[in-house]
Each structure stands twice: as C-alpha cells, then as structure tokens.
Amino acid sequence: MTSVPSISVIVPTRNRPRRLEATIRCLRSQRIAPASYEIVIVDDGSVPRVRLKAGPAEPACTMLRTPNVERSAARNAGVAAASADRILFLDDDMLVGPEFVDAHVQALEEWPEALVVGAVRLPDDALATPFGRFRQALECRVVPSGRGLTSSAEFCTAQNLSMGKGVFRALGGFDSALVSSEDQDLALRHVARGGKVGFVPAADAIHADHALDVRSYCRRAEWGSRTLVPFIRRYPDLPVNRHRERINGPIRWGEESLGQTLKKLTKSTLALPPLTTVLFLVAGLVERVAGESRLLDRTYRLLLGLHLFRGHRRGLREHPPATPAAPSSGAGLGCSEAPPQLEMSSTRH
Fold first, then answer.
1. Looking at residue 13, what DSSP letter applies?
2. Do 171 and 263 fall into the same domain?
3. Which among 94, 251, 259, 293 is least buried, having the fewest CB atoms inside 10 angstroms?
4. Which pTM does this prediction carry?
5. What is the pLDDT of residues 57-109, one digit of tens each?
6. Pairing relation of β-strands 37-44 and 7-13?
7. Does residue 290 fall inside a structural domain?
C-alpha cells in the first residue's frame, strides 16, 4: 500500500523545458525520504507540451496540463491534485539544494498555521556583475534579518512558499483574477485573519532566470507594473500602492504639488523609447568604466523607474477602474466561476 506523502511540491511551468528539467532534477535529489514527498508539475499550455524524462520511482511525480490559465489558477489546480496535507510552491526556474524540502517540512511542523517563505538569491555568476549585485540588493530590501515569524504581508513570494493545505483552502487559494502580486494578495488575506508569515533562510533557492541584465530586467518590470494595476485598485490604501499611484499615476492638476506634476511630466518624456535607448547605452558605458559608482546605481534606478512608470500608465489604460472584490476566506480553490480543465498523468509507484 502506498503511503501518503507529508508534503506536495507544486511546480507550475510554461515553455521553459530546460529550466524545468533542472528544477525537477534538484527536487529528485533531496535527502528527505523519497516516499515522504511528491512532485506535482502543472504544465500551463506549453508548446510543445512538457514531456517528463524518466527518473527514479520515487518521489512520486504527477503531471497536469491546464489550458493557459495563468499561474494563479495553475497553482490552484496543482493543489487540487496534491495528496499531502502540506503544499510547497516552487517556480520552474529555481535550483535548490538537497535540504530544501526538509527545511520547509520542519518549519511547517513548527509553524503549522503560517505561510513559510524560503530565501531566493541570484546565481553566483550574476552576482559577479554590477547589475546582478544591484538587483540582489533591490529584491532583498524587505527580507527579514533572520529566521522567524513576521506579521508583515509584504514579505511573501510564491516562488518559494509552503503552507498547510487547510490554510490554503481557508484562504480560497490564489485569486485567478490576479496575474501579478497574487502571492501578496494571498498573504494580505492571511494576515488579515491573524495569520503569520515565517522566513526560513535554510530553504534557499537560486533564481536561474533570464533577466540578469538591466534591459531584460526593465522589460520584465514594465510588464509587472502593467499587470499590477488590478492589485493596486483592490488595495488602494496599502502604503506601497499609495506610493505607486502617487508617483506613477495620472497628473492631478491642482490636487498634487507642482513638483510632483513636473516629475511626472519629466518621466513621460524620458520614458519615450528613443530616450530610454540612450540611457541604456549610458548604463552600458558606465558599467565598463565605473561598475561600482553611484552614477551607475542612479542610472539603473532611473531606467527601472521609467519602465515602472510606463507599465503603470499602460495598465491604467488596459484595466477598467472597477475590479471585483477580494474573495472571501471561504471562497473555492479556483477563485473563479469554473475550474480549469485538466489532463493528468502520473508516475506513482
């Protein structure tokens, strides 16, 4: 008789077969007993579809296919197929060490009602570059100083996140109406119910993504800012959202300071593609001659700010002002009217 695993590792993926293969290889090399965890891969409409290479008989591995429903609904589908009482979300471009899964299991045993977040860092070769160091410092600005619980919902990422399945279901899962900051939304609902978020540095993952230069990162930041607008409208009183709207929102003649209006007009001009192209060239030159200078840091920040501004303005045009209310704590896992259609295969033994 097959025993029930203690934790299910859910990996959503789309069109990244090589990165996924490396992630699964890491997950199959855990020191925790193979029968005590399972892997659930959710292929969200990859073309061609994901074909999992043969591996060890354990841990058990299940493959789902969803029809391009985006990552929130894909993760929810993975939870629906998971057999363990604990769930661990990991992105398909993460590399983890052999103690990774066990670090999450131990944390959930200690904090069964918490959302548990592991550490995320860039590869060593990325940290050897000026932009890699800039990005790492930027993304770690809200990371707690050490292991423990926090009531801050700002620190939560679904890249490397675990919780009890009961906690996830009580929250209604990820809201499939959100394409960006769906993990922040989940954490905000959790903290509003009196929940905590735990940080476990030992559950660290290397983020082996492609945005390791300033151009690629700014493109991704612009996309994120554009798709973030529904989240901002859902939580307009969140301090960080008030800040985003204040610096990137429409000009409010007579309602904001003249200085703020002039800043927005300046960004509207500098955000034009010909001018950002020039700024990218400047950044490349400064990287070569003064890689540790304040000038380079300011150039990176200017470029990033302009792309966030451009993305936010586009998002305002794409999304209507009214957005659905946040789902109640008892909402269904899919957070939508109908669950995605699934195809499932399994290598359980």
1. E
2. no
3. 259
4. 0.88
5. 789 999 999 998 999 999 999 999 999 999 999 999 999 999 999 999 999 99
6. parallel
7. yes
